[in-house]
Amino acid sequence: MSDRRDNQPELPPEIARRRTFAIISHPDAGKTTLTEKFLLYGGAIQMAGQVRAKGEARRTRSDFMKMEQERGISVSASAMSFDFGKFRFNLVDTPGHADFSEDTFRTLTAVDAAVMVIDGAKGVESQTQKLFEVCRLRDLPILTFCNKMDRESRDTFEIIDEIQDNLAIDVTPASWPIGVGREFLGCYDLLRDRLEIMDRADRNKVAESVTINGLDDPRLADHVPGELLEKLREEVEMARALLPPLDRQALLDGTLSPIWFGSALNSFGDKELMDGIATYGPVPQPQSAIPRQIAPQETNVTGFVFKVQANMDPKHRDRVAFVRLASGHFKRGMKLTHVRSKKVMAISNPVFFLASDRELAEEAWAGDIIGIPNHGQLRIGDTLTEGEALRVTGIPSFAPELLQTVRAGDPLKSKHLEKALMQFAEEGAAKVFKPMVGSGFIVGVVGQLQFDVLASRIEIEYALPVHFGPSQFTSARWITGPKAAVDRFANENKGHICHDNDGDMVYLTRIQWDIDRVERDYPELKLSATKEMMV
Question: In CATH, which of 3.40.50.2300, 3.40.50.150, 3.40.50.300, 3.40.50.970 is domain 289-392?
C-alpha cells in the first residue's frame, strides 16, 4: 500500500481540496440520514428528506430506487458531489445489509477514507466489523460518528472501549456528549473548546455554538445544569489523561480514529464531523495499478470504473458507469483510451451525481467521481487513460453463495430475460451463468435479499415477471490452469461447467466433495472463489 505521508510532491490546489469518502455501517445506524444532512450543510439541498417519510415529507436523495423507498433501506451505493466551504466533497452512501456487501466492497476501492457510523445504543455490530476489516486491508483512514445520542445510549467510555477492543484501533474523542437520551443537551467540542447545543424543536436547524475558554469558564454554568457539568468536567479530564490526542499522521496511517458524537436526525454533530473530514481527512491518494502506481498530480488523465448502474432514469434505457478519476484534470469532450478494448472513447456528456439527479460535468479533477453514460462498453474494473496501457488493480468479484435457476413468466419473452440478466451481470448486481449443457440461466448472488431486488427491478424496468427456482448447485468457482487441462476437465464434467458473462469458465459445485475431488484428480487446475474485475 502506498505511503500516506505528506512528503509527496505538492498537489495542485484544485486536487488538494478534494475529499472523497464513503459512509459505512451496520444497517439502520443512520448512514442515509447522515448523508442527507451533509447535503443540507453543503447547500446542495434546501430541506433534508427522511428515510421513512410519511405523507408529503421529502424522501431522502440517496435512496432513489422504488424498492429502497418502500423498504426504507439502501440497496445500491449512490454518489454525491457538493462543495463545503472551500472544499469539494465526493461522498458515497453504501448499502449496510450484508446481502449487498459486494457493492460496498467495490465502492471502498474508489475512496480515500471512510466514515464509520455507529449506533450509540448498539455499539459495534457484525457488519460494521466486516466492513472495517475491508478498510483495514486497504489502509483506509477511518473517522467515526456515534449516532442516535438523543436516544437512550450506552456510557461514552464503554462505546470507545468497545471500538478499541473489537476493531483494534486507537480512538480519540473529538467531541464529548453532555447527558444521554432525554437529558442529551449537546456536546463539548474538544478540538476547539466550544460548547455545541442541540435544538430539539427544529430538526433542520444547525446547532448553536458557544465559544468558551476551557472547562473552567464560569459561563458554562449558564448553559449546562450543575450535575451534568460536574460529570462533564470529570469525564473530559479522564478522557484527556487516558486516550491518545488527535494526531493527523496516525489517522492517515489508519491506526487512529477520531470519534464525534451526535444525532443525525436532529442535525446535531454532523457539521463538526464535516469540519473534521475537511481538516484532517486525506487528499486524493495514489492508486495501485499495473505496471506502475498512478499519482494524483500527474498531468495525464486516468480513471477506473468501480460501479455500473443500469436504468437510473427509467424513461431511458441508460447505463451509467461510475468512474473515479485517479489523476489529471479532465475536461468534457476529452478522448480517452479504453484499455481493455484499446478503443478511443470521446467522453462528451460526463455527469456529476447528486444521487439520481445529475448535472453535466464541464471539468473534473483527480479524486472526483463522475458518471459516463454508455451502451455497455464500460464494465466494472475497466481503466480509462490518455493512451498509456495501465490497469487499475484490486477491484474484487466474489463467488456467489446462493444459486437459483431463473425463467420468464412468459416463455415467449426469454430473449428479453437474457438481455435483462446480462445488464444486471454487467452492473455487478448478480452473477449470471450459462450452462454448457441445457438451456436457461443460473443466477448467483451473495445474499437472499438480492433475488428480491432482481425480481422487483426486472419487473419494473423490463415489465417482465420472473420466477426463481431451486438449483441443485450450491456454489461456484472460477477455473484457471493450462488450456489443455482445462479443456479436458470441461469435457469430463460437462454437467457442472458454465460460463459467466465475461466468458470465463466456472465450475458449479453441490457439496465440498466436488471441490476436493478436483484438487485430487486435477492437481494442475486452480479453483478460486474470487476474481479480479479486470481484463
Answer: 3.40.50.300
**DSSP summary character for residue 237:** H
For residue 6, pLDDT beyond 50: no
Beta partners for 184? none
Type of residue at 207: A
Closest CA to 15 of 88, 115, 112, 82: 88
List C-alpha distances in Å: 177 to 142, 147, 211, 228.
20, 11, 16, 10
Residue 409: Cβ within 10 Å count = 11
Q: What CATH class does 13-177+244-280 carry?
A: alpha beta
Q: What are phi and psi of 306, to 5 degrees?
A: -115, -5
Specify the residue for cell string 443537551: 185
Question: What would you report as the CA-atom Rg of the chain, rounded to the nearest whole angstrom?
Answer: 25
Tens-place pLDDT, residues 368-416: 988 888 877 888 888 999 888 888 887 777 778 889 998 888 888 888 8
Q: At what angle do helices 31-41 and 270-280 cross, to 10 degrees?
A: 80
User: How far is CA 180 from its chain centroid?
Assistant: 30
Q: What is the model's pLDDT at position 36?
A: 78
Give the domain ranges of the chain. 13-177+244-280, 289-392, 399-532
pTM: 0.79
Q: Angle at Cα 25 formed by Cα 258 and Cα 367, nearest 5°?
A: 70
170 CB-contact burial (10 Å; exposed 0-12 / middle 13-18 / buried 19+): middle
Q: Any idea how long the chain is?
A: 535
Residues 6+ apart with CB under 8 A from 77: 22, 92, 93, 94, 95, 103, 104, 107, 307
Per residue in 55-94, pLDDT (tens digit) is 444 455 455 555 555 555 555 567 788 888 899 988 887 7
Note whether 347 and 372 are within 8 A (CB).
yes
Residue 79: all three cell numbers together: 454518489
pLDDT tens digits for range 473-485: 888 898 888 989 8
Q: Where are the alpha helices (DSSP H) in 181-315?
A: 220-223, 226-242, 248-253, 270-280
Q: Do residues 42 and 89 lie in contact, with contact meaning Cβ atoms separated by under 8 Å?
A: yes
Q: For residue 10, give the 3-state DSSP assignment.
A: coil
Which of 367, 394, 395 lies closest to 302, judged by CA?
Answer: 367
CA distances in angstroms from 34 to 82, 131, 174, 308, 489, listed in the order given = 15, 18, 18, 24, 52
Residue indicated by cell numbers 473534473: 364
Instruction: Determine how β-strand 466-470 pairs with β-strand 383-385.
Output: unpaired
Please count the CA atoms within 13 angstroms of the CA of 382 that sit on its side-chain side. Answer: 26
Domains 13-177+244-280 and 289-392 share a fold: yes
Residues 6+ apart with CB under 8 A from 10: 297
Give the CATH superfamily of 399-532: Peptide chain release factor 3, domain III (3.30.70.3280)
Query: What grid cell was written down for 225?
Result: 445544569
Grid cell 468497545 in the structure block, residue: 162
Burial class of residue 523 (count of CB atoms within 10 Å of its CB; 0-12, 13-18, 19+): exposed
